[in-house]
Specification:
Elements lengths: L7 H4 L7 H11 L4 H8 L3 H15 L4 H11 L3
Helix pairs in contact: 2-4, 2-5, 3-4
Length: 77
């Protein structure tokens, strides 16, 4: 009998993100900008931008609209 193994990435693409990446993705979905996120997390704005790029790469998305859609579809804030 063929047994299908479920890949968590297929069920929830957000599972590819680290805790910090997910935290920042949630903040974007809440409407926060780079500077506000940086100040809130006590990190540099450039770090936030780098993490955003990593999020986009991991999720294979190109903009914040797509990120917010994924957050709203797959994650309860």
């Amino acid at each position: 009998m063929l047994q299908l193994v479920q890949n968590p990435d297929l069920i929830n693409p957000l599972s590819r993100l680290t805790k910090r990446e997910l935290q920042i993705a949630e903040m974007y979905a809440e409407g926060h900008g780079n500077l506000e996120i940086a100040n809130s997390l006590d990190i540099k704005q450039n770090t936030v931008s780098t993490i955003k790029k990593n999020i986009f790469d991991k999720l294979k998305i190109e903009n914040l609209v797509e990120l917010i859609d994924l957050i709203n579809t797959h994650h309860k804030i």
